[in-house]
Structure formats: C-alpha cells, structure tokens
C-alpha cells in the first residue's frame, strides 16, 4: 500500500512539471512608466505661404498620447531636453527618392514633470515636410510615431521607460493605423496555481512517507 502511495506521489510530482513547465517560473518586472500614441486625430497638408523651403509639402499630425504610471505613487518623468513636439516620427517611403524632415524646437534644458498613478492623457502636434511639392496626401510607405520617456528613480538616476510605437502604413493611398496597447498585468509577484500547490504539497509529503516506511521496517526487524 505504501509502495503504491509513493508511486502515486512521484507521478503527481512529475506530471504537472512536465505538462505545465512554466507554472513555477518567476516573471520579470514591467517598466514602471510607459508611453504610447493612443490616437491619431487627423493628418493634414498644411498651407505654407511663410515656409521658405521650395518644392516641399508640409504635413501636420494631431495625436493623443498616454503616459502610464504603474506605481502606486507619483513618479517624476524627466525631459533631458525640452522638445516641441515630444512625439517623434520616422518614415520609410516606397518611392525611395522621397525624403522627409521633422520640424521641432529643442532647448538644452532639463525639466521634470510629476505623473500620478494610472494613465495621464496629453496632446501633441507633429509637423514634418517631404521633398516634393503639391502633394495632397501621405505617400505610400511606413510611418512610426512614438513618445520617448525617461523617469527619475528614488536613487535619482535616470531610467528609460517603455516606449510603445504606433505604426501608419499607407498602401495605394489607403491609410492603416496600428496602435500599441499597454500591459496592465502585474508580474512582480510570484503566484502559484492549484496545480503548483499540489506539486509543493507532494514534495513535502514524500519525505514523510519515506520516513514512516523506514520506521516500520526497523520495527519489523
């Protein structure tokens, strides 16, 4: 009877481990601060009578931005240089003769902002131009929008936050936008399922049965 119990416990230990190998794994921490472009409100061609670069088309993209603070208290986000806009854009065109240039104002100045727990919404306006005149829409290609973010730790060190990217794909003039989503799942604590609890219980119970078995043998001698 004892031998059958031992076999049952051995099976109960190893089958869950083989079938569910990731149950007892410990996941890493999610970044405390994340940023994403959550919505593109409009993409427009900007009339540019005062814009003195010839043979270009000026564009503007109105975007909503979200900053996620996963901490339970306020965190300080650090701007290493004051940029206007804070959202960056990259582009790769199907027509490789096209080039673009983003327009921004930067000051060599560090500024700090306090963000409350949860999501803080912001708005920004990205301006750039492409080296071809009289365009009426975005040329075919891939565009990426993102908002770099850094935060200040309790040790006063500057830590890079998670920067999620929003992608715009233009194919034959059709615009398709893919937004990145925040992950809200907390992974800083180890959690055990009922199956892993059975494994732990079995590991603890097995030495007790072995001890009792040896004890009975010693008595019978």
Short structural summary:
With 221 residues, the protein is of the alpha+beta class. Helix content is 20%, strand content 41%.
Topology:
Layout: H1 2-19, E1 33-45, E2 57-69, E3 75-79, E4 82-84, E5 88-93, E6 100-103, E7 105-107, E8 111-115, E9 118-130, E10 141-146, E11 150-152, E12 158-160, E13 162-163, E14 166-171, E15 174-178, H2 194-220
Parallel strand pairs: 1-13
Antiparallel strand pairs: 1-2, 2-9, 3-8, 3-11, 4-7, 5-10, 6-9, 10-14, 11-12, 14-15
Helix pairs in contact: 1-2
What are the salient characteristics of this protein?
single chain, 221 residues, alpha+beta, 5-stranded mixed beta sheet, 15 strands, 20% helix, elongated
Explain what this protein looks like in three dimensions:
- The model is unreliable at 2-28 and 186-209 (pLDDT under 50).
- The chain starts with a helix and ends with a helix.
- It has helices at 2-19, 194-220; strands at 33-45, 57-69, 75-79, 82-84, 88-93, 100-103, 105-107, 111-115, 118-130, 141-146, 150-152, 158-160, 162-163, 166-171, 174-178.
- Helix 1 (2-19) packs antiparallel against helix 2.
- The protein has 221 residues and is of the alpha+beta class.
- The strands form four sheets. It has a five-stranded mixed β-sheet, with no helix packed on it. A four-stranded antiparallel β-sheet has the order 8-3-11-12, with no helix packed on it. It has a four-stranded antiparallel β-sheet with strand order 5-10-14-15, with no helix packed on it.
């Amino acid at each position: 009877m004892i031998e059958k119990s031992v076999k049952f416990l051995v099976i109960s230990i190893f089958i869950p481990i083989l079938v569910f190998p990731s149950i007892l794994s410990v996941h890493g921490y999610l970044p405390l601060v994340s940023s994403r472009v959550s919505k593109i409100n409009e993409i427009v061609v900007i009339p540019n009578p005062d814009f003195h670069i010839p043979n270009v088309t000026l564009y503007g993209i109105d975007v909503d931005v979200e900053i996620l603070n996963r901490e339970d208290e306020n965190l300080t986000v650090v701007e290493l240089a004051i940029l206007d806009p804070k959202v960056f854009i990259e582009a790769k065109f199907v027509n490789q003769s096209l080039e673009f240039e983003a327009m921004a104002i930067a000051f060599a100045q560090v500024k700090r902002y306090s963000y409350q727990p949860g999501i803080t919404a912001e708005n920004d306006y990205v301006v750039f131009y492409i080296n071809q005149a009289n365009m009426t829409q975005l040329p075919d290609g891939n565009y990426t929008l993102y908002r770099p973010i850094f935060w200040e730790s309790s040790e006063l060190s500057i830590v890079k936050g998670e920067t999620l990217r929003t992608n715009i794909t233009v194919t034959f003039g059709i615009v398709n936008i893919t937004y990145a989503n925040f992950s809200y799942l907390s992974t800083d604590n180890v959690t055990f399922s009922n199956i892993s609890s059975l494994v732990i219980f079995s590991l603890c119970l097995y030495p007790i049965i072995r001890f009792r078995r040896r004890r009975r043998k010693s008595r019978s001698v």
